[in-house]
């Protein structure tokens, strides 16, 4: 019995470590769902938002993209600042900010005010997607990290599916403002839960201050030239460049009778493959090699699409192969970098490159489809996946090999 007591005379809580760790990982993942819902609450109900702000015309689209623009411009800066502020307070206050903004948005203010609120909301989103995965890596035992980061990688797809499935009846019953209220409550509840759940988690702050713009630029350069810190982000750029674009463009080439089925199953395939085959594969190979393998399989599927056209099952298979890239890219952060500061910087770089990919991908694919048809779309996809593999192979060679 005495072996189970600490020197303080109190019972040991070692038997609670694993359930507490699992709870922390789940809550951090749930925070990611809240961050992704900052997109989905607009995207899923965009026709309603568009009719609400009909006088704004095409500018209504900025209500969705302004968050990506914020991330593309200052995504890496969020990573650099996170370890100065402290990961836990940054995450909690980002959730509070996001929750309060969503509650205000529920009043459906004028278009300029809503746009301003969404711009500020981009800061909340960035802080969450930088701090939460870094904290997941910190609280997870080494044996859990691959699975935990693969789970984190599903947050975007799960949030969109959940918003459509659970949010639709809420909006139908109570109006478009209700989805903002529900989202705000979700964020505020998670802020309180994580404040207490992470109370004993040490989140050391970096000692070196950022002295000015020149120092900030130098730190950006040092991160992107690092073959370990930058590698997950460089591969992620080419994944995000095609992921949303594939969901937007490919269904238009699918037979109308199968189109709805494909639209529903494509993101689900990505999630399912990531959580099953992706987690299993990480037991036998590195996250970097799995990312490269996912890109290679995606090229083979696009080749089949180029040969016989887009079918619902080929589109689903393509998104399934990208599910391997999705989970492995986040797992690669824990595999390639050790320090909390480097992991925060890697998460910030990944957020920045992801937003750049989201911003550029869909317009490029729409232009390619309108000017060159499916063949042009397929060629751009193959080029993007080849570039993603090349980025990882190049970084791997600079580290002294892909397994380094």
Tell me what the structure shows.
With 404 residues, the chain is an all-alpha fold. The protein has helices at 17-43, 46-52, 62-85, 87-105, 111-139, 145-152, 155-174, 177-197, 213-224, 231-249, 256-281, 287-308, 312-336, 340-399. The chain is built from 14 helices and no strands. The protein is globular, with a radius of gyration of 21 Å.
pLDDT averaged residue by residue: 83
Q: What summary fits the major beta sheet? A: none
Report strand %: under 5%
Low-confidence stretches: 1-12
Order of helices and strands: HHHHHHHHHHHHHH
Give the number of DSSP strands: 0
Through-space gap between termini? 45 Å
Radius of gyration of CA atoms, rounded to a whole number: 21 Å
Quick overview:
Helices cover 79% and strands 0% of the residues. The chain has helices at residues 17-43, 46-52, 62-85, 87-105, 111-139, 145-152, 155-174, 177-197, 213-224, 231-249, 256-281, 287-308, 312-336, 340-399.
Structural descriptors:
14 helices, globular
Q: Can you lay out the helices and strands and say which pair or pack?
A:
Blueprint (H helix, E strand, L loop, with lengths): L16 H27 L2 H7 L9 H24 L1 H19 L5 H29 L5 H8 L2 H20 L2 H21 L15 H12 L6 H19 L6 H26 L5 H22 L3 H25 L3 H60 L5
Helix pairs in contact: 1-5, 1-7, 1-8, 3-5, 3-14, 4-5, 4-8, 5-14, 6-11, 6-13, 10-13, 10-14, 11-13, 12-13, 12-14
